[in-house]
Amino acid sequence: MLSIVSLFKQIWASVFLLVLAYFVRPVILRRLIVDNEGNHLPPGPNICYAFLRKYAERALDAWAKQYGDLFSIWMGSQLFVVVSDPHVARDLLVINGAIFSTRKRYFMKNQVILNGRAITASEYGHKWRQHRRLAAIALNPMAMEQYASVMDYESHILIKSLHDEGARGKHPINPAHFSGRFALNNMLIMSFGIRTTSASEPLVAKALDLAMEFMDLTGPWSNCVDFFEILQYLPSSKRTRGRRLHDALIDVYGGMIMDFKSRMLSGEEVPDCLVKTLLDNQEKEMLDWEDLCMLSAVFTLGGVHSTSGIIQWFLALIPSHREVLTRAQTELDEVIGRNRWPTFEDEESLPFIRAIIKEVQRVHAPFWFATPHCASEDFAYKGMYIPKGSVVLLNCYTLHHNEARYPDSFKFNPERYKDDKLSCTESAKLPDVMDRDHWTFGAGRRICPGLPAAERELWLAISRLLWSFDFQALPDEPISLEEYDGLSGRTPIPFRLRLIPRFDGVGHIINTVEEMTL
Ligand code: HEM
């Protein structure tokens, strides 16, 4: 009798284990899929992951070395295909751009936070073309000409506020809030035709916090809820944060749209900007209220975090690279002199300064994985199968440390760009991808449409910082160049430095402007 009971128990245990293995196996072990022609998935790790946390680029770089230029990795039920070579990036994202230009419907980013709106999340097709067209109106060459003087002015205010806040180098300062406000003002002008008039205006802190929260919640693989559908039905603190962020974006950016609209309705002459374009075209393009809020919010905060991040990385790098600083300031003294400071028109005659900006973007791209693309059809590439729905990720970290393209790639060495006479915008169009300066602005049809604006902003800020200041780190507060804040957008761990005016004339030029309201 006893032996029959124990036999039953054993059978039940075996059945239970088999059922468990049936359901758990695909969650733990790599799924092997083959297409009709017998092509296998690109190689990759044997287990599935739930998420990748901070410094994910290190894991990706190691896998790229182990599995090659195109490898695949399962995150829960989602397949990622990782591109780590310039030629593969061109073949997939540029030449086959019609197939690799859509976006995954991420649960946290696209559904909870953006509620299906915003250009960065829009799926390739009618919606994306509509969004891109509207962005192109706001960023057309004539509009850019108008923003040029604004950007010039904002860079002036940036240098002045750093100079004044640091009491001419007496007090060490954390530059993050100032570079953030600089980038924010530029974006507010392009999006809403307004600017903040002081660093302490509450909108500055609010907008920068929202940008940081957005970047942290929307990393390509920071939320396991994106890869395990069952979790989408359960409450979680992350999801609550996502909802709060959605509401805050509507509140802050919607509030600014309402202000703009009431100015328009009262007959005031309002400036050309993204929101004017959206309101003018609202009916024709059938844009609802959330479309307006999310389009303007994500356009603005995307341009803030990235541009501010690059200025911060420049300031983090330069105190420990004295030879670069000396060479840059010698170039400025020889070409510009000390009676005026550089303008945008001087860019071509200051190749070393341009090289510094490119090198900062290479060693410290603000997004190591750009914004993931997604395959809208099954595709076979060199005998490898990329199924429809795969997320295709540009691995900028490995691309930027390709020793064949950038020898001694971990060194901050602007010299490597000494023969590069092109702007980033021009470089991104080069037919030989090995000649492209870097991949910081992405690739293919979804390449950053704000590239020319970002380039101009960075030029004005960084060339004028170099012209104006000597940069000193604090002996007791080392600046980390390895660690960083952020799961998606990367900014340095907060740091302080002294900005000491190089000569008396700096103060004279800086004090020729005051804060103004537009
Ligand atoms: C240094 C500053 C910036 C960096 C590093 C940067 C980087 C990027 C990257 C990597 C992408 C994704 C590209 C891809 O999917 O392949 C992107 C998309 C985008 N960027 Fe930027 N960006 C910057 C500044 C700006 C500025 C100033 C604006 C607006 C004026 C802007 C507007 C956009 C928009 C609207 C998209 C979405 C494009 C789409 O999905 O079709 N960005 N950016």
From TrEMBL:
One of its GO terms (molecular function) is oxidoreductase activity, acting on paired donors, with incorporation or reduction of molecular oxygen. It comes from the Eukaryota. Pathway: Secondary metabolite biosynthesis. Its cofactor is heme. The chain crosses the membrane at residues 6-24. CDD domains: CYP64-like. InterPro entries: Cyt_P450, Cyt_P450_CS, Cyt_P450_E_grp-I, Cyt_P450_sf, Cytochrome_P450_fung. Its main location: membrane. It is a single-pass membrane protein. SUPFAM superfamilies: Cytochrome P450. Pfam families: p450. Heme binds at residue 448. It is found in: Membrane. Keywords: Glycoprotein, Heme, Iron, Membrane, Metal-binding, Monooxygenase, Oxidoreductase, Transmembrane, Transmembrane helix. GO terms for cellular component: membrane. Belongs to the cytochrome P450 family. PANTHER family: CYTOCHROME P450 MONOOXYGENASE ALNH-RELATED, P450, PUTATIVE (EUROFUNG)-RELATED-RELATED. This is Cytochrome P450. It comes from Psilocybe cyanescens.
